[in-house]
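Limitations

Structures in this collection are predictions, not experimental determinations, and the ligand pose is part of the prediction. Treat each record accordingly. The example that follows, with flavin-adenine dinucleotide as the small molecule, is included so readers can see exactly what is and is not provided: the inputs are given verbatim, and the output is the predicted complex.
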Amino acid sequence: MTSKTRVVVIGAGLAGVTLARRLGELGTPALLVGEEEHRPYNRVLLAEVLAGRYSPEVIALPAPAGLLRGRVTGIDRAGRTVRCADGSVLAYDTLVLATGSNAVLPPLRGLFTPDRELPEGVHAFRTMDDCLGLSKAVRPGARAVVIGGGLLGVSAARALAVRGAQVVLAQQSERLMERQLDPAASALVRRHLEGLGVEVHTECRVRDVRGVGGAVRSVEMGDGYALGADLVVLACGVRPRVGLAREAGLEVGRGVLVDDELRTSDPHIRAVGDCAQHADRVYGLAAPALEQAGVLADLLTGDGTARYTGTRSLTRLTLTGPEGPFDGPDSPFDLAAFGETDPRPGDDVVQLADATRGTYRKVVVRDDRLVGGVLVGELGTVGALARAWEGAEPLPSDGGPLLHLLTQDGGS
Ligand SMILES: Cc1cc2nc3c(=O)[nH]c(=O)nc-3n(C[C@H](O)[C@H](O)[C@H](O)COP(=O)(O)OP(=O)(O)OC[C@H]3O[C@@H](n4cnc5c(N)ncnc54)[C@H](O)[C@@H]3O)c2cc1C
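Predicted complex:
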C-alpha cells in the first residue's frame, strides 16, 4: 500500500507527538508513525507509574489525529518513501526523525541469555513496557539492584523503595547524578534515598549478572562481592537512536546532525528530540525536545524565520511521590538544575542550605550573569531563576537581588 502524505514523523514520543499536534493545529496534518503499543505518554513521568503514584492513563499525552502504529524499518531517500515492518510504504515530502534514545545496556558478563534476551528479572528503564514489567515484578521485600546512579537510576531506586523493595543502588562514579548536580546537592539526593532505605554504593562497579534457568539470582561487584538479586534495573544512560538515519546515509555523530532549521544532511529530512545532535550537543532531555518540535512546526508551516539555537530552559527533574510531608517515604522530592553548577575561579556563588528540611539552593554568577544553579527539595524560586537565566539579562551588581532571587518565595 502506498499513501501520499506530506509530512511523515517517525516516533510518537514527546517530540514527535508535540510536533504532530502543533502541525495539526496549524493546518498541516502530519502522519505520525510510532512503534510502541501504548497510547503516547510522557516518558518523564514513568517513575511515577512505577512508584504506584500514577496509572499509565494519567501520563498519556493527548494523541494527534494521524497516528499510525508501526515500526519504520527503512528510508528510501531517492524515492522519498519509508518502509514499515508490516511491508507498507509511506511517501513523504518532508520526513522527520523523532526516534528518541535507547537504553544503554552495559557490557556485563552474563547479561544476555543464549538467545540474546535479558534474563528474567533484568529490566531496562526507558519504555512503558519496561516500567510495567518492573511494576509487575516488584513486591515488598524483593531484592532489587539498580545499576547506575544518574537521573534514571535515582528515580528507579526511589520508585522501587516506595513500593517496598530492598534496593541497592550501584553507582560507578563517586556521587549521584553528577551530570546535573553539584556535590552538595548529590549528597542531599543520597540522604533522601537512604532515608527511604536504599543502600547507596558509589565508586562501585558491577561486573557480572548471574542467573539460574534464565532468571537473575545475583550480581557480582568488581571486588568479587556477590549481591543477591530478584530484580536488576539497568540505568546506565541512553544513546540516540540513529540506526535508520545511518543506514539511509545521513550524517550522524552521536546523534543525527542538524542545523538551526533542524535539517539533516538531506534537505527533505529533519530530526528533533533525543535523536538529534545540534551544535555538537545531544540533550537527552524533555525541554529541548519540546522546543525543537515547536520550532520545526513553525518552519514547516511557513514561518521561515524560526530557528533553533540551543536550549537555555531549565531542566526540571521530578522525583515525586504521593502528596505528604517533605522527607517522608511518600513525599515529593523535586530537583531543578540548569547551566553550569560548578563555579569557575572568579565566579560568584550564593548558597542556602537547610539541613533540617533537606533543602539546598545555589546559583552561580559570572560577569553579572546567572550561569547556572541547583535547587533541591524546594522549588518555590524556580520561576524567577528560570526567567533570569533564560533571559540572560545582566543582574544588578550589588549582590542583593541575587539573594532575593533565591528567597523571594519567602523561604529561608
Ligand atoms: C524514566 C525516565 C525519566 C526521565 N526524566 C526526565 C526528567 O525528569 N527531565 C527531563 O528533562 N527528561 C527526562 N527524561 C528524558 C526524556 O524522557 C526524553 O528526553 C524525551 O522523552 C525525549 O523525547 P523524544 O520524543 O525525543 O524521544 P522518546 O520519548 O524516546 O520517543 C521516541 C519514540 O520513537 C519511537 N521510535 C523509535 N524508532 C522508531 C521507528 N523506527 N519506528 C517507529 N517508532 C520509532 C520509540 O519507540 C519512542 O516511542 C526521562 C527519561 C526516562 C526514561
